[in-house]
Write a structure and sequence with these properties.
The protein is mainly β. Helices cover about 5% and strands about 35% of the residues. The strands form 2 sheets. Strands 6-5-4-7-8 form a 5-stranded antiparallel sheet, with helices on one face. The chain has a 3-stranded antiparallel sheet with strand order 2-1-3.
Length: about 140
């Protein structure tokens, strides 16, 4: 049996601007030009109003921890040893996305809901993935 590696996403024409942004260190999401609602995951039709008048823009990269699960068992596509957090983060712009949490121990005491997070990018194969860690507040 070949050694397991990390799963590598494959960009599609609809998602290529997202992956290009990640490679440039930018979190790009879409918004509807008609109803102005930002959304994530990438798609050509607005999920709020059904318009095909959508645009890409660079999100702030700020988020909060909305939910998480702590995984203690090895999973296909993951090389890291558990425990690790699989999270849903809420972007400052409104949409939620799944991601990994870095820089915080994967314990309920350390993963506080609504904690401020900031995006970073981690290379996996030919693509860069957004991951989130604690946001350092300005002092």
């Amino acid at each position: 049996m070949p050694p397991r590696g990390k799963a590598v996403p494959e960009p599609t024409p609809d998602t290529q601007p997202y992956w290009d942004g990640a490679a440039a260190g930018e979190l790009r999401i879409q918004r509807c030009l008609d109803c102005r609602v930002p959304y994530f995951y990438p798609r050509p039709i607005c999920p709020s109003c059904g318009s095909d008048q959508v645009e890409w823009f660079t999100a702030s990269g700020d988020a909060t921890l909305y939910s998480y699960v702590i995984n203690h068992r090895p999973a296909p596509g993951f090389e890291e040893e558990g425990p690790y957090a699989i999270a849903v983060v809420q972007l400052a712009e409104g949409p939620r996305m799944m991601s990994s949490i870095r820089g915080v121990p994967a314990t309920p005491d350390d993963l506080v809901l609504d904690m401020p997070l900031r995006v970073a990018f981690e290379q996996r194969g030919e693509v860069w993935l957004p991951v989130f860690g604690p946001r350092q507040e300005a002092r």
